[in-house]
Amino acid sequence: MWQAIKNFYHRMGTPREFYRIAGYWIPIFGVCFAVLFIVGAYLGLVVAPADYQQGDSFRIIYVHVPAAWMSLFVYVVMAFAGAIGLIWRMKMAFIVMITSASIGATFTFIALATGSLWGKPTWGTWWQWEARLTSELVLLFLYIGIMVLYSAFTERKTAEKAAAILCIVGVINIPIIHYSVEWWNSLHQGSTVIREGGPAMPASMLTPLLLMALSFQFFYGWLLFIKARTQALTQEQGSSWVKQIIESKQVK
Amino acid sequence: MNDFNFSEFIAMGGYAKYVWSSWALTIIAMASLVVSAIRKRKILYRQYHQQTQQSAARKQRLARQQSKS
Amino acid sequence: MTAKQSTSHFSSFTLFLRRECFLLWNNQENVIQPLFFFLITISLFPFSLGSDPELLKIIMPSIAWVAIVLAIMMSLNSLFRDDFEDGSLEQWLIGNRSLALIALAKIMVYWLFNGVFLAILACIVCLSTNISFEQIKVLFASLLLGTISLQLIGGIGAALTVTIQRSGLLIAIIVMPLFIPILIFGAGAVTRSIAGESVAGALYTLATLAVLSITFAPFGISFALRNTIE
Question: What is the model's pTM?
Answer without folding.
Answer: 0.90
